[in-house]
Amino acid sequence: MPELTIESARGAVSIAAELVAQIVAEEAARCYGVVSLAPRSRVGRLLRRGGVLVGGDVEGLRLELHVVVEYGLNLAEVAATVRSRIAYEVERVTGLPVASVEVVVEDVRVTV
Which of 17, 55, 66, 88 is 20 to 30 A away from residue 96, measured at CA? Predict the structure, then answer.
């Protein structure tokens, strides 16, 4: 995965995109209504952050995460909460601006 760089007058800091994906995955797991991430590939099923894609340009990070939501909850509200919380936490921890967070609800599941 590529590195993301923050430049200032004193130098530059590079952050691995994989680290950003890990932050997104851990924060998504803490969001109310999110049962799990939904990995897009067989390898992704082995990795905890398999349902997270990280990209970006000069405007900021572009994050996409695929989630499984608890059955019976309002999907739009859960997705809005996830978007807000992920954007805030990634900006707080990394110092990188977040241009967009796309939440794709892949499935709903009844938790027991």
Answer: 66
* CATH number assigned to the domain comprising residue 56: 3.30.70.1350
Residues 6+ apart with CB under 8 A from 70: 33, 34, 35, 78, 108, 109, 110, 111
Element (H, E) at 37: strand 34-37
- Spatial separation of the C-alpha atoms in residues 108 and 51, rounded to whole Å: 15
In sequence order, which residues have a C-beta less than 8 Å from that of residue 31 and are 6 or more positions away? 78, 81, 82, 85
3-state secondary structure of 26: helix
Q: Based on the structure, what is the number of domains in the chain?
A: 1
Q: What is the dihedral of CA 38, 44, 61, 70, to 10 degrees?
A: 20
6 lies in a domain? no
